[in-house]
């Protein structure tokens, strides 16, 4: 029985077994050859080969598995031994002796070649070469163990040098069978250990296996007994990498060449029932590297804490983690993980939150870990939640390797609040916005049709109004007038519209010798200025809604001939320019605004139609109009003027304005141009998830957000927001 099946034998326990075996070999030498210590010659090869098999084998040096470098050292030792046996130059050697020597030498060469190829090919990126390296590793591990390779040398020496003496042949053969093949002392020690484990299990702990290695820090590898039934979350009592007893949680099973191993995670709490450590078998077992399963009630303190750790543990900090990005090796799949889920990790003794942005499998890990594959998640750092300030603070460092990653407990969707534009999905952690920074640094809402852009814009408009900011909505859809009817006077709007429309239409017959003074543009602009000045000066009115497409304004396009001239109506882009430039002019008359103070916000709903990119205009006049609008927005910040751009076609909106939008709400986006543009704001990681965002979800980033980095949030529901906010 191989000692890997004997988890009850410690390193210290194997030493007396080795001594007894050595005494047995000495007695076999006395019985067969009449001397305790055989000569260091061909007739002593059997003794020293058997001794090497025991010493280098499973008792001391290589108790669990054979590494390629170990196989090379054993092979070289055997090669030197065989070369020292002069079967080719000795006259006493027969053809049969040379044949057995050749077979033994071929075996040793096979071990050396497989070990060398394993080392040389293990880092290759080619799948075929990787499979070849894996094959060589399996061959070397199977035939390169000290027990196997020294047994070949032993049998060669036995057949070649002792077959003439019946006594030597019989006694030496029995010694090999008894001490090298069967090894009864190890079987006896294992049997006694199993009997003890039956008694120990009555104390609330049960033996499950033995420690075979550590992945420092925090991870311990266990070789389970065949009868053990360990599942994720079971509490274990096992020594840590420092050699002291500690509590651990079972993670997952890993398939290796030598069988199934269990990984367990050591956690910091040492509050365990000390009476368990007083049990003699437990104390000795822990010192010998045994691992025990512990009943939950045997945990003396912090019961709720460790139970919470077991319930929310999803994985470990994996290699490749940086200061801003977390790599997670997932160890379970029974929790509700999704895009945007929050996880927490301990960094510098603080609980730091990260947001999952991607999940993937790594095939190279699956190949290197003996067909064990796992799911890896990537998460972006959010920060440390400051409960007093109700916002996240930056922690400029990264967690330790193999640190526990916990899923933030899922909660019901929190209610909208005055400052919260949304929440992290499934949590009560809010994302707040500053309405003044939304305006003073400009804002864009980008997303496909039906993703929720307008509802978000309506919410932001209401927040601006409450913050004392005047809002002028340039809306082609007429949806704002209906949704925000509680915030503006429809009768006043109607009267002003009729007056402006009357002025605009009357210009059709107004011909002037000066082209720029013809038609109704000048009069229309003057009237617009009058109404906007009245609106901005008013203490009661907070919202003004205009539809540029509903106005008919004539302009003169040529010099008059016989009191006739070419004429055309202004496009929505040109009327948008008038509203924007007039608003800026009125605010300039009021003087420069204070730091961070926003006075007025222009909302460009369906912005691709009001401020189009130069290659998306319907007429040449729209290019000039858009440039005029952009120039006014660029100048507006000093005077408290900003804009809110709402569009579903990022590529068709002038970049002169979009590039000035410091705060961005990115909803679901499909077009490559939009994603490429958003990479500059939210980064490639978050841009890659935009096409899969659910409804009412958005990636938010910018000066007005309470989070310094891009975050994925669940936006407020419109009905819930209006019910709570308008109270």
The counted number of beta strands is 25
Q: How far do the termini sit from each other?
A: 78 Å
Counted up, domains total 4
What's the tally of helices? 23
Please state the second-level CATH architecture of the largest domain.
Answer: 3-Layer(aba) Sandwich
- Computed Rg: 40 Å
User: CATH H level of the largest domain: which superfamily?
Assistant: P-loop containing nucleotide triphosphate hydrolases
The major beta sheet can be summarized as:
10 strands, mixed
| Uncertain residue ranges | 1-8, 364-369
List the helices and strands and how they pair.
Blueprint: H1 11-33, H2 45-56, H3 68-84, H4 95-121, H5 127-143, H6 146-162, H7 166-182, H8 184-200, E1 205-215, E2 219-224, E3 235-239, E4 245-256, E5 259-266, H9 274-277, H10 280-287, E6 290-294, H11 303-312, E7 313-317, E8 325-330, E9 342-347, E10 350-361, H12 363-368, E11 375-386, E12 391-393, E13 404-407, E14 420-423, E15 430-432, H13 435-440, E16 443-446, H14 453-466, E17 470-474, H15 479-483, H16 490-506, H17 521-537, E18 543-546, E19 554-556, E20 567-569, H18 572-590, E21 600-604, H19 607-610, H20 620-636, E22 641-647, H21 655-658, E23 663-666, H22 672-687, E24 697-701, E25 711-715, H23 718-725
Parallel strand pairs: 16-22, 16-23, 17-18, 17-21, 21-22
Antiparallel strand pairs: 1-2, 1-6, 2-5, 3-4, 3-6, 4-5, 7-8, 7-13, 8-11, 9-10, 9-13, 10-11, 11-12, 14-15, 14-25, 19-20, 23-24, 24-25
Helix pairs in contact: 1-2, 1-7, 2-6, 2-7, 3-4, 3-6, 4-5, 4-6, 6-7, 16-17, 17-18, 18-20
Describe, in plain words, how this protein is organized in 3D.
The protein is an alpha+beta fold and 727 residues long. It has 4 domains: 185 residues, no CATH class; 98 residues, Thrombin, subunit H; 98 residues; 291 residues, P-loop containing nucleotide triphosphate hydrolases (Rossmann fold). The protein has 23 helices and 25 strands. A 10-stranded mixed beta sheet has the order 15-14-25-24-23-16-22-21-17-18, sandwiched between helices. A hairpin with a 7-residue loop joins strand 7 and strand 8. The longest helix has 27 residues. The N terminus is likely disordered.
């Amino acid at each position: 029985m191989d000692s890997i099946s004997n988890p009850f034998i410690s390193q210290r326990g194997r030493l007396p077994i080795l001594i007894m075996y050595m005494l047995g070999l000495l007695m076999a030498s006395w019985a067969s050859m009449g001397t305790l210590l055989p000569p260091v010659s061909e007739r002593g090869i059997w003794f020293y080969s058997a001794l090497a098999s025991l010493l280098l084998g499973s008792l001391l040096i290589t108790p669990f598995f054979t590494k390629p470098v170990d196989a090379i050292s054993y092979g070289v030792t055997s090669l030197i031994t065989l070369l020292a046996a002069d079967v080719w130059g000795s006259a006493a050697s027969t053809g049969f002796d040379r044949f057995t020597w050749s077979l033994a030498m071929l075996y040793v060469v096979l071990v050396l070649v497989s070990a060398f190829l394993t080392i040389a090919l293990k880092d290759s990126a080619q799948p075929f070469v990787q499979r070849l390296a894996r094959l060589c590793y399996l061959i070397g591990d199977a035939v390169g163990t000290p027990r196997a390779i020294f047994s070949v040398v032993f049998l060669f020496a036995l057949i070649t040098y002792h077959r003439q003496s019946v006594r030597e042949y019989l006694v030496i053969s029995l010694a090999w069978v008894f001490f090298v093949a069967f090894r009864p002392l190890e079987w006896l020690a294992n049997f006694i250990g199993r009997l003890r484990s039956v008694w120990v299990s009555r104390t609330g702990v049960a033996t499950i296996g033995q420690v075979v290695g550590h992945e420092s820090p925090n991870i311990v590898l266990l070789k389970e007994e065949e009868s053990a039934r360990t599942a994720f979350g079971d509490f274990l009592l096992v020594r840590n990498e420092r050699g002291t007893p500690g509590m651990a949680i079972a993670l997952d099973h890993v398939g290796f060449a030598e069988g199934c191993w269990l990984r367990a995670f050591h956690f910091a709490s040492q509050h365990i029932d000390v009476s368990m450590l007083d049990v003699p078998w437990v104390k000795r077992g822990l010192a010998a590297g045994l691992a025990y399963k512990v009943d939950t009630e045997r945990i003396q303190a912090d019961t709720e804490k460790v139970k919470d750790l077991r319930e929310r543990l999803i994985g470990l900090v994996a290699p490749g983690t940086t200061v801003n990005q977390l790599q997670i090796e997932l160890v379970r799949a029974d929790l509700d993980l999704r895009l945007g889920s929050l996880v927490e990790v301990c960094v510098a003794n603080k609980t730091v939150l990260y947001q999952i942005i991607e999940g993937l499998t790594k095939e190279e890990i699956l190949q290197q870990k003996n067909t064990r594959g796992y799911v890896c998640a990537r998460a972006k750092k959010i920060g440390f939640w400051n409960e007093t300030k109700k916002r996240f603070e930056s922690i400029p460092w990264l967690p330790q390797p193999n640190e526990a990653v916990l899923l933030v407990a899922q909660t019901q969707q929190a209610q909208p609040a005055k400052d919260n534009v949304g929440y992290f999905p499934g949590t009560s952690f809010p994302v707040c916005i500053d309405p003044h920074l939304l305006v003073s640094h400009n804002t864009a809402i980008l997303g496909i049709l039906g993703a929720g852009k307008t509802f978000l814009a309506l919410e932001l408009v209401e927040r601006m109004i409450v913050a004392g900011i005047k809002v002028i909505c340039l809306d082609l859809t007429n949806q704002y007038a209906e949704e925000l009817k509680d915030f503006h006077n429809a009768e006043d709007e109607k009267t002003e519209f009729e007056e402006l429309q009357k002025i605009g239409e009357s210009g059709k017959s107004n011909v002037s010798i000066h082209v720029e003074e013809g038609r109704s543009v000048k009069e229309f602009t003057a009237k617009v200025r009058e109404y906007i000045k009245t609106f901005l000066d008013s203490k009661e009115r907070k919202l003004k809604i205009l539809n540029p497409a509903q106005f008919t304004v004539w302009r003169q396009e040529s010099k008059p001939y016989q009191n006739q001239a070419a004429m055309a109506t202004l496009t929505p882009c040109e009327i948008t320019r008038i509203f924007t430039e007039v608003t800026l002019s009125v605010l300039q008359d009021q003087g420069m605004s204070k730091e961070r103070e926003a006075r007025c916000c222009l909302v460009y709903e369906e912005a691709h139609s009001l401020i189009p990119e130069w290659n998306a205009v319907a007429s040449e006049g729209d290019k000039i109009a858009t440039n005029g609008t952009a120039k006014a927005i660029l100048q507006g910040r000093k005077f408290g003027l900003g804009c809110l751009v709402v569009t579903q076609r990022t590529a068709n909106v002038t970049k002169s304005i979009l590039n000035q939008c410091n705060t961005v709400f990115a909803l679901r986006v499909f077009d490559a141009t939009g994603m490429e543009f958003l990479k500059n704001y939210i980064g490639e990681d978050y841009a890659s998830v935009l096409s899969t965002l659910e409804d009412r979800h958005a990636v938010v980033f910018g000066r007005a957000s309470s989070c310094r980095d891009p975050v994925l949030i669940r936006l407020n529901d419109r009905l819930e927001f209006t019910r709570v906010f308008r109270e």
